[in-house]
């Protein structure tokens, strides 16, 4: 549950990256695969070596889903239900990978927003992205 | 043992030379206490931790953050023997401080985010990789003597 203050921080940060879903998402995935190579096992379709066009396309998809979550903070479960089904029945990404993605997300936010990335924003986004991951893995069993 | 390529090692060292240990240390510890508030359980004697602002400006948090990061910096000089370097500190954190080693992993991750914040684009995926390896190595070294 996010307070009104926390929801404001979520939106504040999102407004700074909205419109840049593709490059942000691509960098997010690049960092994930570089820092945590085992995560590549879920993305064979992105090619080896990584295809840049695919990376941008998939990165955009991931960030657009985050955008959906931002717009439906009050009801993540309903808004992300199709994605939760996808992750539970098709993708089956081991839940331990989501904290790795979240760490890379924090690094992308911090390195781009720098002086503007306050401790409150970092705290709220950690809470928000963790809640998102819980919803995506909730139907696993 | 931390396995860094020659390039990772030189990149890591070059970046560390630009780090203000007092500033980054204080910020990393402060952000840990705010982002993961349960970590405050070890610092009840630090005084006012009642708000994000209070934590970030708390002089004891700043001082302790500096101490922790200085110790981490020492570790960077002994990447071939982190377990040996942090043996005494490991015993201290187990026997006297009773700190769950998970906290070392959390602090390591926050430190990486703080470095990204300070260095921006310069903090490339390759540099992140090097630092994530080192913070994981230090966390393991600090947990090594637990019993």
Can you describe what's shown?
- The complex is a heterodimer of chains A (141) and B (147).
- The model of chain A has no long low-confidence stretch (mean pLDDT 97).
- By secondary structure, chain A is mainly α.
- Chain A has seven helices and no strands.
- Helix content of chain A is 71%, strand content 0%.
- The longest helix of chain A has 20 residues, at 52-71.
- The two termini of chain A are 23 Å apart.
- Chain B contains eight helices and no strands.
- The longest helix of chain B is centred in the C-terminal third of the chain and has 19 residues, at 125-143.
- Chain B has one domain (6-143): Globin-like, CATH 1.10.490.
- With 147 residues, chain B is mostly helical.
- The interface between A and B is medium-sized, with 23 and 24 residues.
Keywords summarizing the entry:
heterodimer, A: globular, B: mainly alpha, 8 helices, globular, oxygen transport (chain B), Hemoglobin subunit beta-1/2 (chain B)
> What is the end-to-end distance of chain B?
20 Å
* Apparent shape of chain B: globular
| Average residue-wise pLDDT of chain B | 97
Number of helices of chain A: 7
Structural class of chain B: mainly alpha
Question: How are the SSEs placed, and which strands pair?
Answer:
The complex is a heterodimer of chains A (141) and B (147).
Chain A: H1 4-17, H2 21-35, H3 52-71, H4 76-79, H5 81-91, H6 97-113, H7 119-137
Helix pairs in contact in A: 1-7, 2-3, 2-6, 6-7
Chain B: H1 6-16, H2 21-35, H3 52-57, H4 59-76, H5 82-85, H6 87-96, H7 102-119, H8 125-143
Helix pairs in contact in B: 1-8, 2-4, 2-7, 7-8
